[in-house]
Design a protein that fits this description.
CATH architecture of the largest domain: 3-Layer(aba) Sandwich
Strand order of the largest sheet: 3-2-1-4-5-6-7-10
Protein name: Phosphoribosylglycinamide formyltransferase
Number of domains: 2
Order of helices and strands: EHEHEHEHEHEEHEEE
Oligomer: single chain
Keywords: Purine biosynthesis, Transferase
Helix content: 25-40%
Catalytic activity: N(1)-(5-phospho-beta-D-ribosyl)glycinamide + (6R)-10-formyltetrahydrofolate = N(2)-formyl-N(1)-(5-phospho-beta-D-ribosyl)glycinamide + (6S)-5,6,7,8-tetrahydrofolate + H(+)
Largest sheet: 8 strands, mixed
GO molecular function: phosphoribosylglycinamide formyltransferase activity
CATH superfamily of the largest domain: Formyl transferase, N-terminal domain
Pathway: Purine metabolism; IMP biosynthesis via de novo pathway; N(2)-formyl-N(1)-(5-phospho-D-ribosyl)glycinamide from N(1)-(5-phospho-D-ribosyl)glycinamide (10-formyl THF route): step 1/1
Number of helices: 6
Shape: globular
CATH topology of the largest domain: Rossmann fold
Distance between the termini: 38 Å
Structural class: alpha/beta
Length: 216
């Protein structure tokens, strides 16, 4: 059972769950302010469900293909989250666009990690977008989710250099290393109430020594 003062987190995934594992491993530390209480996927065959079960985390599969529309699918997710007693949602490679109604119900209580330095390169194929734009820095962003895609207030970012000769796969491999480092730090800030929403932006109280933007 999680400690009463820990924030109860549900992680939503669609695939391997690499960022979910990073969050779960961080949450093993008794001082971490959050507990992973559920890993939920829209794909019953998602590898991340088995990885979560191996870590002793309750899992749930809700197949989006079994629902006639996004609203009824989102309602099923919402019910599962409430049954688990989730306080906060972390999207970690969840490849479904959530309805505005769902996002609004969880406003200020849902985080996402996106593989670019937002507001650059929203949507998909972000690494190819970065290479096409010729940027010298790329990276990842943890942000609060709002109805507009990839547009919520930013909690934390990590940057990586773009090398000559990079292709989308090599760049993605460099970014995912930073995603796994950044997401637990950002969750700790939010769950520990050191990152708070102030209007349309995030204010960090007592930021960690390495800051919230890490360039490597």
């Amino acid at each position: 059972m999680p400690a009463p003062d820990k924030v109860r987190v549900a992680v939503l995934i669609s695939g391997r769950g690499s960022n979910m594992v990073a969050l779960a491993e961080a949450a093993r530390d008794p001082s971490f302010p959050a507990e992973i209480v559920l890993v939920l996927s829209n794909d019953p065959g998602a590898e991340g469900l088995a990885r979560a079960a191996a870590l002793g985390i309750p899992t749930r599969a809700i197949d989006h293909r079994s629902y006639p529309d996004r609203a009824t699918f989102d309602a099923a997710i919402d019910m599962a989250l409430r049954e688990a007693g989730a306080d906060l949602i972390c999207l970690a490679g969840f490849m479904r666009i959530l309805t505005d109604g769902f996002v609004e119900r969880w406003a200020g209580r849902m985080l996402n990690i996106h593989p670019s330095l937002l507001p650059l390169f929203k949507g998909t194929h972000t690494h190819a977008q970065a290479l096409a734009a010729g940027v010298r820095l790329h990276g990842c962003t943890v942000h609060f989710v709002v109805p507009e895609l990839d547009a919520g207030p930013i909690v934390a970012q990590a940057a990586v250099p773009v090398h000559e000769g990079d292709d989308p796969d090599s760049l993605a491999a460099r970014v995912i290393v930073q995603e796994r480092r950044l997401y637990p730090k950002a969750l700790a800030l939010v769950a520990g109430r050191r990152a708070r929403l102030d209007g349309g932006r995030v204010v960090i109280d007592d930021p960690p020594p390495d800051g919230v933007l890490v360039s490597l």
